[in-house]
Amino acid sequence: MISGNQIKFIRSLTRKKVRDEMGLFIAEGSTLVEDLLQSTFIFDHLYAVKDWLDVYAPVLQEKRIRHTEISQSQLERISQQVTPNKALAVLRKPDWKFNPDALSDKLSIALDTISDPGNMGTIIRVADWFGIQTILCTYDTTDCFSSKVVQASMGSIARVNIHCLDLKSVLSSLKIQLPVYGAVLNGKNVFSEKLTSHGIILIGNESQGISPGIRDCITHPLTIPSFAPETSHAESLNASVATAILAAEFRRQHTR
Amino acid sequence: MISGNQIKFIRSLTRKKVRDEMGLFIAEGSTLVEDLLQSTFIFDHLYAVKDWLDVYAPVLQEKRIRHTEISQSQLERISQQVTPNKALAVLRKPDWKFNPDALSDKLSIALDTISDPGNMGTIIRVADWFGIQTILCTYDTTDCFSSKVVQASMGSIARVNIHCLDLKSVLSSLKIQLPVYGAVLNGKNVFSEKLTSHGIILIGNESQGISPGIRDCITHPLTIPSFAPETSHAESLNASVATAILAAEFRRQHTR
C-alpha cells in the first residue's frame, strides 16, 4: 500500500532541486531495476506490482531492500514512463569521489554542457561499453539523475563515475599530464592520427560546441572526417554519435 | 493571416495517416527551414513570423514559395516544438525511387524496424555525414516524416533517400550481389575484418535486434567489440551509435 504522501514525494523527485536535497533519484522498469539490483547502488525504496515482487522477493529480502506492493494504477501515478513497467526504484545518489590522479593512465570523457538527456544517457552507455570509467562534466550539463538520462543509460549509470565540476580549471591542470582531445570541426583527422591509449575525449554542447574558455584546454584537436566532402552534407554529427566514434577509434588503435 | 481551418489542417499532419494521404510533412525552425530551402524538397506552404519573412522574402519570391505571415501565438498553436522558432514549413514528401541496381557499388544502410524517432533522425544524419545515400527500412520502422525524425535529422533528410519496403525479400535478392553486414552480438570483430567499400550495413530494432527472417539475409555478421570484457558492462550499444561506428569504420578502411 502506498500513501498519498509517498506518491507526492516520488513525484517531487522529477525536480533536480529535490533530487539534490534528498540525495535520491528514480529508476524504472523491470529490466533496469533488475540490472541495478546487481550494482553497488543503494536502494532507498522499491515499488512494484505483485507479479514482479513474486519473482524478486528473495533478492529483495537478501539485500534487505524496503519494498511496497502497488497496483498497476498506483504505478501509473508515480511513473514518468509512457508505459510503466512493473517496478520503480528510489535510489540513493552514489557518492562518486573525484581523484584526478586516477585518470593518468586511463581514457576518460569530458562533456562541455551536453543539454539533451537522451544524448547524456547514450554517452554514459557508450562509456560503459568501451570501458571508460569516468565522465567529467560542467555544472551546466543536464543532470545525469533525471529520469530520461537514467532510463537512456540502461543501467550503465551504475558502472560509470560522473563528476560535475569546474571543467575549465580541472582540464587546465589535467592537460599538463594528459592529452586533451577535443572534438572540433577543423581538427586533425582522427583516423590518421596516432592516438594515445589514455587521455580525455572532450565533447561540446549540441549547438554551441566547446566553449571558448574550455577550448583553450585542448592539446589535440580532432575531427571525424565526413566522407561526402564533394556534395553538401550534414553540418555536424550528434554529440553522442561523435563521442562513440572517437571512443571506438581510441580503443581500436590500442587493442589487437 | 492563418485561418482556423489551416491551423486544424497543419495540426492534423502530426498523424502519419494524414501525412501519407496528403503526401505532406512538416519541418520547423529557422535553421532547418533555411537548410531545406537549399534542397530539392518542394514547399507546399511556409508559415513564419514577420522578422523571419523580412529576411527570407526574396528567396521565397525567387522560388515562388507560398507563404503566410503569422504571429508568435499562431506559431505556437501550429508548432510541435517546445520552443517554436520563427518558421514552420509544410513540404511535399519526396518521391524517392528505389533502384536496387544503383546500390551495387555503394555503401547503404538497412534498418529492421527502428522504433525510436530520435534514433531514426540520428541515423539519417549519420548517413548524410558519411556520404551514404540510401537507407532501406521495414514498413514497421518509425515514419521518417514524423516531426521528431525530421527535426532530429537536421536537414539531412533532404540528402538521403529512404525506402520503406519488404526488407526481407529485397535483402534476399541483394545479397546475391552485395555483402550484407549485420550488426549482431556474436559476429566478427568489425575492427579486424577487411570490409568491402560497398554493401549493406544492417541494423536491428532497439530491443529485439534483427528479426529471425531478416537475419538469414546476413552474409557477414559483425560485432563492435566492447573493451571492458573483464567487468560487467553495457549489454548493447544504442542503434544509432552502432550504425555510426560501423559506417565510420567502413569509410576509414577505404579512404586515405
What does this structure look like?
- 2 copies of one chain form a homodimer.
- Chain A is an alpha/beta fold and 256 residues long.
- Chain A has 2 domains: 4-92, Ribosomal protein L30/S12 (60s Ribosomal Protein L30, Chain: A); 100-253, 3-Layer(aba) Sandwich (Alpha/beta knot), CATH 3.40.1280.
- The first copy, chain A, has helices at 4-12, 16-22, 30-37, 50-62, 72-78, 117-129, 147-153, 167-174, 212-215, 239-253, and strands spanning 24-28, 43-48, 67-69, 87-92, 107-111, 134-137, 161-164, 180-189, 199-203, 220-223.
- In chain A, the strands form 2 sheets. A 6-stranded parallel β-sheet of chain A has the order 7-6-5-9-8-10, sandwiched between helices.
- In chain A, helix 6 links the parallel strand 5 (107-111) and strand 6.
- The model of chain A has no long low-confidence stretch (mean pLDDT 95).
Q: Rg of chain A from C-alpha positions?
A: 20 Å
Instruction: Report low-confidence residues of chain A grouped into runs of 5 or more.
Output: none
Strand numbers in spatial order across the main sheet of chain A: 7-6-5-9-8-10
CATH topological fold name of the largest domain in chain A: Alpha/beta knot
**Which chains share the greatest interface?**
A-B, 35 and 35 residues
**Fraction of helical residues of chain A:** 25-40%
